[in-house]
Design a protein that fits this description.
The chain is mainly α. Helix content is about 70%, strand content about 5%. The chain has 2 domains: about 200 residues, Orthogonal Bundle (Preprotein translocase SecY subunit), CATH 1.10.3370; about 190 residues, Preprotein translocase SecY subunit (Orthogonal Bundle), CATH 1.10.3370. It has 19 helices and 5 strands. The strands form 2 sheets. The chain has a 3-stranded antiparallel beta sheet, sandwiched between helices. β2 and β3 form a beta hairpin. α5 crosses α6. Pfam families: SecY. Belongs to the SecY/SEC61-alpha family. One of its GO terms (cellular component) is plasma membrane.
Length: about 450
């Protein structure tokens, strides 16, 4: 604890890092306050009374509500949160694998990335407009008494306000990434999830003074906490797990100095995709329910929406597992380029012992990356469906969502990424990081 306290004091000694953290916290507070602003035309009191009369609002919409910090069921202007931006990013990246113009932009460096980002923003606005229509239809069907303006007017209001709200949240995330600390988009999702944690934990406690669960005891609760700790430790272990490939650099003499002749290591992560596959997979799972909201009278779409809307059901878990595994491989293929690694090593005079430079090195790296990604992808897929398994053992659905699944993976992944950035700032100024005996991924001695 003393070393952690010392690291926290060191953070506040660095002016730039202190400003970045305060800037990030300030924008996250703005986001949380905005999630309580209700859409025009909605009676917030009547909506709350309907929510109190039906406290078991769950399913896929309940999970969506978790990601946006409760704004979905409160009919807030941030009801759709940042998820349309994630969906637009998925579409652009999928197109980048098959469409030549985007592939060309990806090779153009910073200018190409700026254009791709701009296209993603435009896509976000279009997706938000479509989803806001579905949201308006769903809200009118489930909470019609709380809407005090005509249906057509409410639909128009939803499209305008929700599109503006998501655009503002997207802007907040980009500002955090640029001027704050951590990945802004991921932090926006994480702060919404954390907002539910205290109440979910309180509801899972054994009943004390009329608060908590009456059908459990302290022993069962401690077992649940221990299991949660083990799962969290496993997620951290896999997230930071790497396979180190030895790279030998040839000796070079420049003037009177000798360079190279040393062995370094190329670290390949077991889960090189990080937290993005789980976010992408979750966005895909929202699509059937969104389409079903447009076709209220279609038996087929209502059946599909019901099957994929039960986050604790078999079909949802099975499809979610497969999509998580697929996107882990897909995003790894985008994020890690074996050919580029091989070319860089060749230019710097490096080679993997026993492997010829160039194409064979690229194939060697690609083979190892494919092999180590498999256990990582299967583990991520298993953790993604753990809430459904936990619910089968009697854990309440609210707390079960933190038992694994998207919530835990996002919390762990975003926390490690943010700590890594803070650690980098500390080490650049010759301060010790958060851990002296261990290290946050990315720290090098």
């Amino acid at each position: 604890m003393a070393s952690v306290a010392e690291s926290i004091r060191n953070i506040w000694k660095i002016h730039e890092l202190r400003q970045r953290i305060l800037y990030t916290l300030g924008l996250l507070v703005v986001y949380r306050l905005g999630s309580y602003v209700t859409l025009p035309g909605v009676d917030a009191i009547a909506l709350q009374e309907l929510a109190n009369a039906n406290p078991n609002q769950g399913g896929l919409f309940g999970l969506f509500d978790l990601f946006v910090g409760g704004a979905f069921f409160r009919a807030g202007v941030f009801a759709l949160g940042i998820m349309p931006y994630i969906t637009a990013s998925i579409i652009i990246q999928l197109l980048g694998a098959v469409w030549a113009p985007i592939q060309k932009l990806q090779r153009e460096g910073e200018d190409g990335r700026r254009k791709i980002t701009q296209w993603t923003r435009y896509g976000t606005i279009g997706i938000t407009a479509l989803q806001s229509i579905g949201y308006a239809i769903n809200l009118q069907a489930t909470s019609g008494q709380a809407i005090v303006i005509p249906e057509w007017a409410f639909t128009v209001v939803c499209v305008i306000c929700l599109t503006a709200g998501t655009t503002f949240v997207m802007w907040l995330g980009e500002r955090i990434t640029e001027k704050g600390i951590g990945n802004g988009i991921s932090l926006v999702i994480m702060i919404g999830i954390i907002a539910f944690l205290p109440q979910s934990l309180l509801n899972e406690l054994p009943q004390i003074g009329g608060v908590g669960r009456a059908d459990t005891n302290i022993f069962i609760f401690l077992i649940e906490i221990a299991a949660l700790f083990i799962v969290t430790a496993g997620v951290v272990f896999v997230t930071q797990g790497t396979r180190r490939i030895p790279v030998q650099y040839a000796k070079r003499v420049v003037g009177r100095k000798q360079f190279g002749g040393t062995t370094q290591y190329l670290p390949l992560r077991v889960n090189a995709a990080g937290v993005m596959p789980i976010i992408f997979a979750q966005s895909i799972m929202f699509i059937p329910s969104t389409i079903a909201s447009f076709f209220q009278e279609s038996t087929f779409w209502q059946t599909v929406g019901t099957a994929t809307g039960d986050i604790f059901g078999f079909w949802y878990s099975a499809i979610f597992f497969v999509i998580c595994v697929f996107f882990t491989y897909f995003y790894t293929a985008i994020a890690v380029n074996p050919q580029e690694m091989a070319d860089t090593m060749k230019r710097q005079g490096g080679f993997i012992p026993g492997v010829r430079p160039g194409r064979q090195t690229s194939e060697f790296i690609d083979t190892i990356l494919t092999r180590i990604t498999l256990p990582g992808a299967l583990f991520i897929g298993f953790v993604a469906i753990l809430p459904a398994i936990a619910a089968q053992f009697g854990v309440q659905q609210g707390f079960a969502q933190f038992f694994g699944g998207t919530s835990l993976l996002i919390l762990v992944g975003v926390t490690l990424d943010t700590l890594q950035q803070i650690e980098s700032h500390l080490l650049m100024r010759h301060y010790d990081g958060f851990m002296k005996t261990g290290r946050v991924r990315g720290r090098r001695r």
